[in-house]
Amino acid sequence: MSVAGPVSSAIAAVEAARHTPVVPGAPLLPGVVGVMWADGRVIAEHVAGSAVLYDAAGALLPEPARSATRADTVFDVASLTKLCTATLALQQAEAGLLDLDAPVADYLPVFAAGGKQDITVAQLLTHTSGLESWLPLWRDWPTPRERIHAALTRPQASPAGRFVYSDLNLITLGVLLENRCATPLDVLLRDHVTTPLGMSDTGYVTQLGHLDPERFAATEIEDDAGRGLVRGEVHDENSWSLGGVAGHAGVFSTAADLLQFARVFLGGGEVDGTRILSEESVVRMTTNLNGDLPDDAHGLGFEIDQPRYMGELSGPRTIGHTGFTGVSLVVDLDRSAVAILLSNAVHPRRGTAPTNAVRAAWATGLSRALA
């Protein structure tokens, strides 16, 4: 099959999502940047829609007032942040500063509260710690210090070994890394990942002051948090309440930079002559460690073989992650292929419709183009 047909079908699926209202006046994907990469080159790119489509009251902006999406639009990548935090953790393990199989409480004694003394660092990364999935830290605790304490001292919600996808896992890991390295998480990411890889458009917003504010895609109107229309600040309320820097959310990026990041894992930890991870660390991040949980395959950071958003690109050697704002990264290790779909699907409100069908269609387009 030629590349043109599958790519056209994938683009059509994205455009259908952009133009099919699920609530009056609200498309699923206000703005989108999609990239398909294989055989060492970009085989398809799709840029459409608006980085800002609604005003602070939720009204559709007139055409002249809209901000068009560009190939270099900077998106809040939400839970793709977890992959950055995982990478930092593996780096510190390589340096001998962190034992991934040791209890978290060895590094953060307060974490032992609530019977959590035996939970390991690796269990945070595979979401098998038993921590509950989420807490409204921003709403129920008044200061960043109290929010962190609440996250660290919360008792288990289920026995360790069960899969429960939890932001608290990566919030905890972010705090652990900061304490262990005596360095803020945003600086760790800049110094050990984005700068070595030349990802100048990627980082926590605290490190992106050099970027034109007009490049940022808007996300949600967060009236409950008293924030109004969010743009150029992290969408996730808990990360925002922690200063915009946390292990679970807060990173912004572009399609080009995420492609560079993805290629690290295709290259065994190295891309363009720069190594940021050992081959062994890449294997640990990309190999299923939840073998007794077939629907929840997970390495130390990456999700594995998840057809719900990986589509036909899915398989036991396909890794990836999604982000709540409307983003996804899928990497087929065997075919050296990458599917990236970035959108601001929560603009102007979350919950208008699921995005997995569009993510899967985009990844499927790449898979069929390679057939």
What report would you give on this structure?
With 371 residues, this protein is an alpha+beta fold. It has two domains: 4-82 and 192-369, 3-Layer(aba) Sandwich (Beta-lactamase), CATH 3.40.710.10; 83-186, Methane Monooxygenase Hydroxylase, Chain G, domain 1, CATH 1.20.58.710. The chain has twelve helices and 14 strands. The strands form four sheets. Strands 3-2-1-14-13-12-11 form a seven-stranded antiparallel sheet, sandwiched between helices. A three-stranded antiparallel sheet has the order 4-8-5. Strands 6-7 form a two-stranded antiparallel ribbon. A hairpin with a 3-residue loop joins strand 12 (318-323) and strand 13. Helix 1 (4-19) packs antiparallel against helix 12. The longest helix is centred in the N-terminal third of the chain and has 16 residues, at 4-19. The protein is globular, with a radius of gyration of 20 Å. The model has no long low-confidence stretch (mean pLDDT 96). It holds the Pfam family Beta-lactamase. It comes from Flexivirga aerilata. InterPro entries: Beta-lactam-related, Beta-lactam/transpept-like, Diverse_Enzym_Activities.
The span between the termini is: 6 Å
Helix tally equals 12
Provide the succession of SSEs. HEEEEHHHHHHEEEHEHEEHEHEEEH
Which architecture of the largest domain per CATH? Answer: 3-Layer(aba) Sandwich
Shape, principal axes of CA atoms: globular
Q: Under CATH, the topology of the largest domain is which?
A: Beta-lactamase
Beta content comes to 15-25%
CATH class of the largest domain: Alpha Beta
Describe the sheet with the most strands.
7 strands, antiparallel
What structural class results from the helix and strand content? alpha+beta
Q: How many distinct folded domains? A: 2
Report Rg. Answer: 20 Å
Q: How many strands?
A: 14
CATH homology superfamily name of the largest domain: DD-peptidase/beta-lactamase superfamily
Could you give the order of strands across the largest sheet? 3-2-1-14-13-12-11
Helix share, percent: 25-40%
Spans of at least 5 consecutive residues whose pLDDT stays below 50 are none
Q: State mean pLDDT (0 to 100 scale).
A: 96
InterPro entries: Beta-lactam-related, Beta-lactam/transpept-like, Diverse_Enzym_Activities
Keywords: Hydrolase
Protein name: Beta-lactamase family protein
Organism: Flexivirga aerilata
